[in-house]
Amino acid sequence: MLSEVAPATGVQGIHHVALQSRNVAAAEVFYRDVLGFRVSAVRTRADNMQRVLLQGANGTWIEIVPHTEENESALRPSDSVPSSQILQHVGLLVSSVHEFRKRLTAVVGDKPGIAELALGGARARVMSFLGPDGEQLQAIEWQQ
Predict the structure, then answer these.
(1) Domain 14-80 in CATH: superfamily?
(2) pTM higher than 0.70, yes or no?
């Protein structure tokens, strides 16, 4: 159980998830206008590459970084799994999967299915969909 995890390491949770994007501006629009994240910071490196840090309503953070060959080779040794395959999906907590699907469908036109899952003693509604760069996303509604 999560409540039994010892805090000895000092790790309190995940601060943010960084996603590589071939079009940072388009990804920013998607996460801001479609998913409702707020732009917290835009950083421009010396080589004019922008990174965008977005914050969700409950304090979750997503950083959008430009996808470059330099990023790809720096993130992994040549014999490991490509970094684009390491991150399986990002789960986004929503209050209502059905309402979220209505909003998503109105913007992107896709109407993904919703699965009902039992996870231990809890139940959840889960809807999987793709972001602007093909990243796998899930909207999750916990039911206590």
Answers:
(1) 2,3-Dihydroxybiphenyl 1,2-Dioxygenase, domain 1 (3.10.180.10)
(2) no
